């Protein structure tokens, strides 16, 4: 069997047909039924080439004459232009025409295709490379596209990375200016607003990735999740030591979720000053709390250290007793849980005194250091320690545990699971921007804003995404 594939092109001048493929098939076995992947690639590449050739020809014919006087423009020369698509790179002849003399122009000539092909990569290709480059490593992403599309010779890990960076940087350039405060208006204005929507809870945490410049060093990637009681959650992230607009970034996330000035916004974090600075002055009705997860994690580590102390550590009625130390740590946890910071600090001092009289051991200086650090941690964040028990009974969030899954989604699964992966701060930051947009289902909307006719299906007209 011979299958000849032709396309029929209609224009104002009539119709013409063009053969794009000829397939020969002997139906003798299962493998010969239907199209092979190689044949489908060949067919798509040929169809694409013919389609673009016709489009370019029609566009040039339409603009060959001067819009003002109708005089045909004089041809000056031509140069080669490469246009990258999902179905291969196309080598196009880009003519250069002289401007008509009926009107003055700054330049004597111009390239009409430059007005059409403002970029040399099609939006569809940029979209897929940005999407898959953010979800899996660059090389597997390139292999995936090469296996399924006729672009084997024109795509590799560097291409995917560069195109992802291009898309991410364009989105970064659109981000507004950073401000110390994003609170506008006054209490009287806020009181006149409509009844606020349900509260928004924002949790922020971080993870570390290996640095490219110094293979033994790491830098932190801050990741967060904003959860409104009504609507979809939104992930965000940035490299703290690279991003110059972290507060603007978080404000835009909250703004996109419909935050208004009289709406309650609860921020939960590990107490780091840099992270808290990002959260401040975003909303007049915001409240900031220390994350219970990080508190209980520190106490749990100290309880494990206490188990390794000699049996004589701690006293009960003058009798040496190691379990007393573990009991005191549990009571310390209970004090913090109920927001009794003063009693918690007193108990830390008592524990430190007990350790000073304890027998020498490997764990003793470790626990002393951990207690000192915990004391500083509580003192620095005492204004942000609520009654966790009361909030828990009221079914209010007390922990950033819900952000742990986001850290895994944004950082771990893509950036640190393979220990050999190393990143520059810029590369990690741009990748995080694309990955969060993909996870938030925002990438297609971003492309549609840049390219209004991107993936818009209609029942006719010029749109090529319409269902058959």
Q: Would you kindly provide a brief summary of this structure?
A:
The chain is of the alpha+beta class.
Topology:
Blueprint: E1 2-11, E2 14-24, H1 37-62, E3 75-85, E4 88-98, E5 109-110, H2 112-116, H3 123-135, H4 138-148, H5 157-173, H6 187-191, E6 200-210, E7 218-228, E8 234-239, H7 246-256, E9 265-269, H8 273-279, E10 286-290, H9 292-307, E11 315-316, E12 319-320, H10 323-337, H11 341-356, H12 363-380, H13 388-393, H14 401-416, H15 425-439, H16 443-450
Parallel strand pairs: 6-9, 9-10
Antiparallel strand pairs: 1-2, 3-4, 4-5, 6-7, 7-8, 11-12
Task: Give the structural class.
Answer: alpha+beta
Q: Please name the CATH topology of the largest domain.
A: Nucleotidyltransferase, domain 5
**Tally of strands:** 12
CATH architecture of the largest domain: 2-Layer Sandwich
H/E order of the elements?
EEHEEEHHHHHEEEHEHEHEEHHHHHHH
Reading off the top of the CATH hierarchy, the class of the largest domain is best stated as Alpha Beta
Write structural notes for this entry.
The chain has a 5-stranded mixed sheet with strand order 8-7-6-9-10, with helices on both faces. A 3-stranded antiparallel sheet has the order 3-4-5, with helices on both faces. The longest helix has 26 residues, at 37-62. It folds into 4 domains: 2-95, no CATH class; 121-174 and 425-468; 198-291 and 400-423, 2-Layer Sandwich (Nucleotidyltransferase, domain 5); 296-384, no CATH class. The two termini are 26 Å apart. With 468 residues, it is an alpha+beta fold. It is elongated and about 95 Å long. Strand 6 and strand 7 form a beta hairpin. 44% of the residues lie in helices and 19% in strands. It has 16 helices and 12 strands.
